[in-house]
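for the writeup, i need someone to sanity check this before i put it in the appendix. the sequnce is what the collaborator sent (i think, or maybe the updated version? ugh). structure was predicted straight from it, no edits. if anything looks off just tell me and ill rerun, i have time this weekend
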Amino acid sequence: MKAITSFITFSLIAALLAACADQQTAVTTAALSVPMATVNTGNAETVNEYPATIEGEAEVEIRPQVGGTLEKIFVDEGAYVSAGQPLFKINDQVYRERVNNANAELSAAQAAVTAAQVEVNKIHHSCRTR
């Protein structure tokens, strides 16, 4: 009986080993039929663009007190500035023309005052002599 049990156990083990051997051959054959690609080594750069706005801790909005065209920018973006430091130069030709016109009108008004004073003095002088 012991011999029969050993024979059956041996037979089962042999059958299992034979089954495993067949599966391993099938797996090896299947692995060889998979397409392969060669990968080259090297550096690669990935670029991602995201819609965003970056702001500093303290956003300061700078507005001119007058309108005009910028001629020159005296500071770089992001640079530290101090109070009273010039930031931009605005084309001042329009404003110089306005100052010149105002000075001309002032001179004309002063001349009119002088002429009126002369007339007043004439009238006043002629009234005394009569």
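The two ends are 174 Å apart (CA to CA). The chain has a mean pLDDT of 79.
thx in advance!!
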